What does this fold into?
Amino acid sequence: VKVWPLGLCGLGIVGALFETPREKPYIFILSGNTQGYLSPCGCTKPMVGGIRRRASAIEALTRGGVPIVLENGGLVSGRARQDELKAETLAEALKLMGVTAINFTSHEARLGRGTMLSIARLSGDRLVSGSLAAPPSEIHAYQVEAPFLIGGATTHPDTLASALGNRPVAVDAAVRKLVEEAQSSDLVPILMLEGSRDDARRIATAFPALALIQYQSSGDPPGDLERIGTTILASAGDLGKHLVRLVYDQGRFSTYSVVTLTPEFHDHKSVSAVYSRYLDRVGAEKLLESVPRFDTAPFAGTAKCGSCHAKALKVWKASEHAHALATLEKEGHALDPDCVSCHVVRIDSKQGFRSRALTPQLANVGCESCHGPGQAHALRPKQVKLPKVGQSMCTSCHNGVASPAFDFKAYWPKIAH
Ligand code: HEC
Ligand code: HEC
Ligand code: HEC
Ligand code: HEC
It folds into this structure.
């Protein structure tokens, strides 16, 4: 288990040594901004993140304590059919992870009312937001998990409200209501915020009674715990790669650690079952067949190119590119538009890859993934020249998410032909 304890962790351990046995501490697990990255993201090994590991990590990290699992929304970033399926899958997985509350943000709202109803049901009725003036019964003002009162709010209440045909509540008004409700019922107010670190800082200054503000951020979570007065500010970063763990004991937060979801966390059994049902739905709904495509010149196929370029074909056959589709088949993702786009020849083209059965010559990352459509050249090579391939061709697939370690100088020699 890879846990990097940071910040105040030392204090928590020392405190525990000198105390008599008492009630279990609360262990907070913060997640959010998954943006649809349900499976480990970053195709370079080791792949990091994913909901199957997240579930077993939460089990391991909350042992010996009372878990409080806070999901700060941003389940998906798009609004296509696949995003609906992902949001539902994540909601179902979060229920298995024992989620305490889910901030219902503008990202979820954009998927519409139907998806809102299903994620409310699948998550076990855990949605919260204080940013709607007349919230539907599925979205609660808060969740009470004594001694905490957990609420959600967004700095974009207009977007949230208009997506649901509702009226917005300004963020400060929403937070004020949470704090007042907590004070009147003697609970500790916790805020999940669809908003940035700067927004969180401003709100922490304006509402010093808040014990914790969980905000949204991109990239890795901050290495250190941030405090403004007695308010803790934290975020789990994005793309489902990390969790933040905090311990609440004796009326205060005492430890902070960022946990990266590396392969040391095994795939959780029942979340894996939920995940394979998701992949089955992606296949059954034939989402790959409905990706947007435009017209290009026709392709010849890798075998045809290789019939004249024997040396290039030999190098290609020995490269990872030659089995890129098989890699997805092994992972159960061969019908997933999210993945296939970079593992075959051009699914953005009407003339490009369709399926192994229909277009076997365009399976895997073939010659024409890089050189472009080449049938005209294959027919009349002396007359029709192919354009030069630049390095930017590589980074259309070897981008920061899929191939963070990509470096042309190191990678090109492995496939030079
Ligand atoms: C159409 C998408 C795509 C393009 C364009 C592309 N690649 Fe790749 N590349 C992949 C995929 C997918 C894999 C992994 C295949 C697998 O392992 O199944 C890969 C793997 C590789 C590997 C093997 C990595 C390793 O771990 O050894 C090298 C080297 C490589 N690519 C170099 C390049 C270079 C250089 C370029 C540009 C000239 C390039 N690729 C362009 C998709 C692409
Ligand atoms: C943006 C393009 C892109 C997308 C989208 C993409 N991949 Fe990849 N994939 C790559 C590239 C590039 C590599 C090679 C990375 C490297 O070696 O640096 C790769 C490698 C892999 C590998 C081999 C890793 C290893 O070294 O063993 C697996 C497995 C994989 N991808 C699965 C997936 C899955 C599953 C999805 C969808 C959830 C996906 N990929 C989506 C580009 C992509
Ligand atoms: C991963 C991307 C990629 C793949 C796949 C790929 N190539 Fe290339 N190829 C390049 C790059 C980059 C060059 C360097 C010259 C350039 O920029 O055009 C090159 C060069 C060539 C050249 C020499 C061009 C010259 O000017 O001397 C030939 C011929 C060629 N490739 C044929 C093929 C054939 C045939 C295949 C399939 C069997 C293939 N390539 C697969 C990227 C690729
Ligand atoms: C019928 C044989 C034949 C086929 C099929 C063929 N090529 Fe070529 N290719 C050639 C010849 C011959 C040249 C050299 C042309 C010249 O020097 O005038 C060439 C040149 C190239 C070059 C260097 C740039 C250029 O256009 O001169 C690249 C890159 C290339 N081929 C890639 C491919 C790819 C990719 C395919 C498949 C789509 C392919 N070739 C199919 C015969 C072929």
